[in-house]
Amino acid sequence: MSDKLQQVINNQNRQQELGISHTDDVVQLVGFIIGEEEYAVPILSIQEIIKPIEWTRVPQTPGYVLGVFNLRGAVIPLIDLRLKFGLKSKKHNEETRFFVLKQGDDVAGFVIDRLTMALRIKKTDIGPAPDTMAGDESLIEGVGKQADRILTILKVNKLLERDF
Amino acid sequence: MDEFQEILQDFLVESFELIEQLDQDLVELESRPDDLDLLNGIFRVAHTVKGASSFLNFDVLTHLTHHMEDVLNKARHGELRITPDVMDVILESIDLMKTLLGVIRDTSADSGVDVSECVSRLDKVSGGDGEVESPVLDAAPVIEEKEAEEELDFENMDDADIEAEIERLLSQRQDEDKAKREAKIAAGESVPVPPPSPDEEPEEQKAKPAPKAPVAAAPKAAVSQKAEVFDDAKAAAPAKRAPAAVEQTIRVDVKRLDHLMNLIGELVLAKNRLIKINDDVEERYEGEEFLEELNQVVSIVSLVTTDLQIAVMKTRMLPIGKVFNKFPRMIRDLTRELNKKMELEISGEDTELDKSIVEEIGDPLVHIIRNSCDHGIETPAVRLAAGKPETGTIALKAYNEGNAIVIQIDDDGKGLDSDMLKNKSLEKGIITEKEADLMSEKDAFSLIFKPGFSTAAAVTSVSGRGVGMDVVKTNIEKLNGIIDIDSEVGVGTSIKLKIPLTLAIIQALLVGVQEEHYAIPLASVLETVRISRDEIYTVENRSVMRLREDVLSLVHIGDIFEVERILDSSEHAYVVVLGLGASKIGLIVDTLIGQEEIVIKSLGEYLKGIEGIAGATIRGDGGVTLIVDVAALMHMAKGVKASAMIEETSSVTKEKTKASDYTIMIVDDSKTDRTIMRKALEPLGITLIEASDGQEALNTLKQGDHHFDAMLIDIEMPRMDGYSLATEIKKYNKYKKLPLIAVTSRTGKSDRMRGVESGMAEYITKPYSADYLASVVQRNINFKSEF
Q: Above 0.85 for ipTM, yes or no?
């Protein structure tokens, strides 16, 4: 029994070491789909991912701000990324999720069409945003290249910034 | 060091509290210079501060208070008469003392403030009745040194000796006092105060350190335990102010109270939720035995929560006297500055308010009172000419009224002249002539709150810049308060501030507009009225209504919050009359839901500052309800045109070109029944959508993915039955004409009647033939068979 335990601990240690050696050049992201495109945000900026729940409309806001919802006692704004990205709104379905992103004290929920997966991506595989969309105002942090696809990595601080 | 800091903190808190009391006492003293009670009280403050500050090595402060003490001591023993000039010096020294304490609070040291001038003036007053100057100055440090020596001596004595010494000195003084009092009484009080006799002076100086020794050693205990320390002295000190029953208090960091308040907020939300769930359970399991038990628990929890909330709120309550205390001094200063005669009457200073509100209310009151002094109260000559008493009175009152506290400031001055106010405003371009004509007297009074408005002919140091009253309005509105002005020319002005007791948890009126709910702080709701549509008139593009004698301008909540009109609006509407500051408005809503206790939550960084929304709250059902910002709403209402009652019907009817353009929803909880209907209708080629209960059907309908031409509805279904579904659907404007066909095995007459009542167009009883169903459906959707 103790041998087994020791083995497990050893394994974990090894994995941790691996992890440490990897943190330098690997980013962990969570990918999701909006419209036709795949996007990603750093995993650590995600507070939680929940299924759609009821929300309350807030007047005097742009269309992509759907309103606010109750997340265990906290009132959190809800933003529809489809509308924000200029797509038409779509009815929520089985795959729709609310992405609750958090940075510092700023928290907001974002409606996405569907989740893809959590992934590790080498820093060297992340290219800068295309020149036409780069800059401080851009929502795009960079473009991650995978074997069979590319995904757009979004700036969490920009997403959480009020722009109206 | 930490210990020192702790003592220092206590010292500061105590000193500031003492000084607050001091200001008031001193002003009172001026009118009753012979009041020994007051004098003793004031003397004690100076003495306590001196004792504590010498212990903490604040030499400058000690020096100053020491000399104050000298003056006060003389006054106390009847050797010095408190004239206004003497009082000026004393007040000045107290201001200096405040400055010093402020410096100590900020830097932990008392350097950097020059007190020598004030000290010399104090000496002048106490030493030679204002005639002799220099010698006293020199004397002071000497006396101090002597004192220090003596103090050392006392410290070297053993306890018994000290006790004996104290006893001796006290009895000595007792005798002295007695003798003096008797002498005074014998002389009939009017004998001019004898100049300080040189023999008595050192005697006093010696006598003082004795009681001081224990005080200096325990500065913290000085006030509360004084009664004990001076147990013997109590009898001796002539009519010492009866110490109020010693209060058992504990100082708590405000942050902790705030945290506690937040937790209670969460608890209140949970309670609301529990009550809601209890109602649901009650409905579903009617008659079950466990219900009673559940009911009991729920009511106990809700009772205790409410009590707990009140208890915690109370811990945050401060008497408003804290704010009122500074006004007697202010009035006194203004009296001298403006050369008017004024008196301040304070009542209800025990009325309690939340700490955060007490902090906010000070400034507005200062402005209102200064305004009353400067503009309201006339000069003595004018007053006499008008047949009023020479001295003007300003009455400051506080009292509770329901869930609010009212602060009332009355003056018996010249009053507000509404015509003059209008003219002044016209001159300054604050209002237009048209507006002026439409203004009621009350509206005119509230002009004084407009920024840039001033009735004073000249700007004085007191007022006249047209800023102060604007501050009043802003601050009071921030607190969700209401301002009410009453005035009569020549008689006086009365300003009432009505402020909610607390800010974190409030009572709110929940209103509904279409499918949305909003919470309006009850403090701003004056009344609610039910009106029919034809009671609403339009004047210059604005909706108005008559409310008793007044004309009330109206605005629809839907216009302010851009609510989509999907539900049919009924013949009647509710008007919530809102009052804030000095203005009023009627808010039209569709329904009144009720009154609820709500906890204000912020909308967060992302959505803060949305116009018209003050925050959000979480309701019993877990949903979020927005709280209306009444001040902003009133502002927004000005820009809203009277579109309020115009109904728009924009139903897009698409031309049907093929059979599958027709869409029908089948609502039945039985899969078999749905299949039977499907089989019967499929031959027609029309599109069929299924739903397994009323709730699902309603959701599908609302999502608007399909444009339905008819619905087949079973009556008995879980979650929402057919009748309720039909009733719900018929609430919507755009579904008014949607044919609903009941398909049921209920054949009773009353069932049919209910079907008709709830808006069913047809009633098909099971079993039915496929052809019959198809023909009924075809008839209802105007199906053209040529496809």
A: no
